[in-house]
TrEMBL record, chain A:
Species whose genome carries this gene: Halobiforma nitratireducens JCM 10879
UniProt cross-references to Pfam families, sorted A to Z: RNA_pol_Rpb5_C (PF01191)
Matching InterPro entries: Arch_Rpo5/euc_Rpb5 (IPR014381), RNA_pol_subH/Rpb5_C (IPR000783), RNA_pol_subH/Rpb5_CS (IPR020608), RPB5-like_sf (IPR035913)
Quaternary structure, from the entry: Part of the RNA polymerase complex.
Keyword Cytoplasm in record: yes
Gene Ontology MF term list: DNA binding; DNA-directed RNA polymerase activity
Name this polypeptide is given: DNA-directed RNA polymerase subunit Rpo5
UniProtKB/TrEMBL annotation, chain B:
Gene Ontology process terms (BP): DNA-templated transcription
CDD domains per record: RNAP_A
Entry GO MF terms: DNA binding; DNA-directed RNA polymerase activity
Quaternary structure (record): Part of the RNA polymerase complex.
Biological function: DNA-dependent RNA polymerase (RNAP) catalyzes the transcription of DNA into RNA using the four ribonucleoside triphosphates as substrates. Forms part of the jaw domain.
Lineage: superkingdom: Archaea
UniProt-recorded name of the protein: DNA-directed RNA polymerase subunit Rpo1C
Listed GO CC annotations: cytoplasm; DNA-directed RNA polymerase complex
Cell location: Cytoplasm
Lineage: Archaea, Methanobacteriati, Methanobacteriota, Stenosarchaea group, Halobacteria
Reaction catalysed by this enzyme: RNA(n) + a ribonucleoside 5'-triphosphate = RNA(n+1) + diphosphate
Domain RNA polymerase Rpb1, chain residue ranges per copy: 56-337
EC number: 2.7.7.6
Keyword Acyltransferase among record annotations: no
Length: 75, 399
């Protein structure tokens, strides 16, 4: 199987710790379900991610150096 | 403290790092300061503050209708796109849909593009030696019987005769035995193979069956990937000045190609955003949408469309974890408001269904409020103004 994370189109995906997640949600003043979603069967998802986890994605941005976004894992 | 690789003193770094600027702009400030060695810390501070003011000024204001602005900013140059479906891609004589049809195809999120294609990068010696690169080509390009030899029908004996070309077989790394075996598997007939000659025929002598067999024989893929009809090999200069072979394919099978030996699975791409989504995930699909829309516009000399508009489109299309089209079946059709959906397309159906299900419209969006004649909740429309002075004791009752 090909290692998807090596592809240049795929940014770094990591599972976000619950404590850090709380900080993020308070900072943006949103609920976890307001975040963009990522499917559970997404090929780029880390192996230890489960439904309900929030994934931290660090993109190489076109407009700034790096952009951090979050996606909620859904069915 | 972030690393600064510019030749400026620590105080200057401190004042620049203190601003709200993004990294890229900070670096530009450093570059500017480098060219002025006699600038004092005060000058640096003044420069950084001026850049910061301008930066903060150009940021989107709260309640700005960014979607509408994006729509206009892509729509206006869109009127200048070609309506021609086909055009040379510029690289490698492969026809690719361009201009308006391609843009529509992307935002509609069509399952397969009109002209699927892949750009296949190779790794190590496959990228530098023509011989090795060709090995990969034969593993990708679909090889049909007519490429391997001549087919003739002997009506008298009711036999199909194939005489294979030995050189072609060797080049494409396939043996006559393999060819015979594939024919037996695919057509369910027994073959007689002698050297490069292969013969077979229908069980019962029948002219129709014979022709039928020849038809089916032509469709068999003996080697390579069925969906890929043609591969063009090109020698290209890379960013670092080195040269390597790059393959362009007509037709695409992204997942299959990534598995082939010699293919660089980290740089190979295709123009089908759904294939990218399936194999690389939603984030890669988002990147691909931005890249493809941007290239489509740039190809037509319209690259002055700010990439942020395209990023917004890609963000919305990939928001729920899979690719959604913009339009009736996608984003616009899934709006919460009944009135907004009804105003877009198939008005009666939406109103009827809403009535049956007892839907409530909370009048949050733009369209609904235009319909009922209320100010829209955007820009100054969402701000309440009140005149007078606030008495601290009555403040709690004022609202």
């Amino acid at each position: 199987m090909v290692d998807v994370s090596q592809h240049e189109l795929v940014p770094e995906h990591t599972v976000l710790e619950e404590e850090t997640l709380e900080e993020v949600l308070t900072e943006y003043d949103i609920d976890r379900t307001d975040l963009p979603k990522i499917k559970r069967n997404d090929p780029a998802l880390p192996d230890d991610a489960a439904v309900g986890n929030v994934i931290k994605i660090v993109r190489d941005s076109r407009t700034t150096d790096q952009a951090v976004v979050y996606r909620l894992v859904v069915e | 403290m972030t690393e600064v690789e510019y030749d400026v003193d620590d105080d200057t770094i401190a004042v620049v790092e203190d601003t709200d600027l993004p990294r890229r702009l900070k670096n530009e400030v450093y570059e500017e300061l480098e060219t002025r060695p006699d600038a004092t810390v005060e000058d640096a501070d003044e420069l950084a503050k001026a850049v910061e003011t301008r930066y903060v000024d150009t940021r989107v204001d709260p309640l700005d209708p960014v979607g509408t602005v994006s729509a206009q900013s892509i729509g206006e140059p869109g009127t200048q796109l070609t309506m021609n479906t086909f055009h040379y891609a510029g690289v490698a004589e492969i026809d690719v849909t361009q201009g308006l049809p391609r843009l529509i195809e992307l935002v509609d999120a069509r399952k397969t593009p009109d002209t699927p294609m892949m750009t296949v990068h190779l790794e190590d010696e496959y990228a530098t030696e023509r011989e090795r690169a060709h090995e990969v080509v034969w593993n990708i390009e679909a090889t049909k019987i007519l490429a391997l030899g001549d087919v003739s029908t002997n009506v008298a004996d009711m036999r199909v005769q194939i005489s294979l070309n030995r050189d072609t077989l060797e080049e494409r790394m396939i043996t006559p035995e393999e060819v015979a075996e594939i024919i037996e598997d695919e057509l369910g007939v027994s073959t007689v193979q002698q050297g490069t000659e292969i013969q077979f025929g229908p069980e019962e002598p029948s002219y129709r069956d014979l022709l039928q067999l020849v038809e089916e024989l032509r469709d068999i893929t003996f080697k390579g990937i069925e969906d890929i009809s043609r591969v063009v090999i090109r020698r290209e200069e890379m960013d670092d000045g080195s040269e390597e072979f790059v393959l362009y394919t007509e037709g695409s099978a992204f997942g299959d190609v990534l598995e082939i030996e010699g293919v660089d699975a980290s740089r190979t791409t295709c123009n089908n955003i759904h294939e990218i989504h399936r194999n690389l995930g939603i984030e890669a699909a988002r990147e691909a949408i931005i890249e493809e829309t941007n290239n489509t516009l740039a190809e037509q000399g319209l690259d002055d469309v700010n990439v942020r508009h395209l990023m917004l489109v890609a963000d919305i299309m990939t928001n729920n974890g899979e690719i959604e089209s913009i339009g009736r079946h996608g984003i616009s059709g899934s709006k919460d408001s009944v009135l907004a959906r009804a105003a877009f397309e198939v008005t009666v159906n939406h109103l009827l269904n809403a009535a049956i299900h007892g839907e409530v419209d909370t009048l949050q969006g733009v369209t609904e409020n235009v319909i009922v004649g209320k100010p829209i909740k955007l820009g100054t429309g969402d701000v309440d103004l009140r005149m007078g002075s606030i008495d601290s004791s009555s403040e709690s009752q004022a609202d």
